[in-house]
Amino acid sequence: MITVFVLVVLIFVFVVIDFSQNSDEFTDHGATIEQVVTVYYGNYIPEIVRLVTPVAVFIACLLVTGQMADRLEIVALKAAGVSLYRLLIPYMLFGIVVLGIISYLDGFVVPKSNAKRMAFEHKYLNKSSQRIDKSVIFRQESKNNIMMINYFDPKEKVAYRVRFFKFKDDQVVEILDLIRMQWQEKKNDWLMVNGDRRVYHDKGYTSSHFNRRDTTINIYPQDLARSTTDVYQMTYPEIITYIKTLERSGAGDIDLPRVQFYNKLTYPFSIIVVILIGLSIAAERRRGGRGVHIAYGLTFSFIYLVFMKLMEPFGAKGEITPLLAAITPHLFFFIIGVVLFINAKK
Q1: CB 3.0 to 4.6 Å from 140: which of 46, 64, 250, 252, for a disulfide?
Q2: Within this chain, do residues 71 and 145 fall inside the same structural domain, yes or no?
Q3: Beta-carbon contacts of residue 58 (< 8 Å; ≥ 6 apart)
């Protein structure tokens, strides 16, 4: 119950701060109170829950354990032969349950709500995700086919000045130039407009022209309109497919979605880390009571989150592997937790 209470308080504080920062923009861009509450915050709260749950668990762990220490209940348990190792078991069982819940939310619920929230932000807050591919986009459509796009409009799903190169034995055997290429939702394929095709042979080349042609290729709009927040709007299976598609198509900057994906997978394990550290810190009586425990919780959580954010760019730029960038903060603080727990009075 304490965890839920702390979680509700943190969500309330988060919403109040966010609303105070964005209230003017909501009004200026014509968003109604109903839209702000139901569409924006209704879809923002799942993300907030994901973010602050480890903080809530940590503070709750500090408060509960600290209260037990102040009442000498831990001393009584130790006198009865119950060590901190045994006391850790119910804490960890609780942590595993919360970990499973957060993993499910992050993998299948939060992405859908994030997509709706980000669409609202784009419309009413002038916030848009930074595009990764802006112009002169290259993709490998198949083993022997490379596509070059001068510009892609993600909103209209239109590619302008498109060129396909077909290779055979390291030689260009065919070039197809298009004025534009439009994605057709109903047909789930591309409409090629004003195409000029040149087929090369020993004596030169032959050319042909067409005005419109439907075609199916292994490139989709989501493979071209990439942004820095794509992963946060996808479920786990969708992210795996997305990354595999980028790898197959020869896209650049793949380490960014990889490290974001690994961060999503490993983030719930921070709950186990904070429980281990929280129990170690609060198991001994300290002056200051609950205020000191809350200060410990907020300070440590801030440092933890900052460390995770600092590691992400290293993985995204390829200076370290994306997996290592994702697990390093959790592994580092887990080791700290183990050391603190070992040194705690048993």
Answers
A1: 250
A2: no
A3: 274, 275, 277, 278, 297, 300, 301
Give me the sheet containing 135-142, strands edge to edge: 135-142, 145-153, 158-168, 171-184, 189-201, 204-215
DSSP string, 236-294: HHHHHHHHHHHHHHT-S-THHHHHHHHHHHHGGGHHHHHHHHHHHHHTS--TTTHHHHH
Intra-chain end-to-end CA distance of the chain, in Å: 27
Asked if residue 120 and residue 18 are part of one domain, the reply reads yes
DSSP 129: P
In-domain check, residue 236: no
In a domain, 248, yes or no: no
Work out the number of other CB atoms within 10 angstroms of the CB of residue 111. Answer: 21
Structural domain containing residue 217: 135-223
Instruction: Check whether residue 165 and residue 303 sit in a common domain.
Output: no
pLDDT in tens, 295-334: 777 788 889 989 998 999 999 888 999 999 999 999 999 9
**Same domain assignment for residues 104 and 151:** no
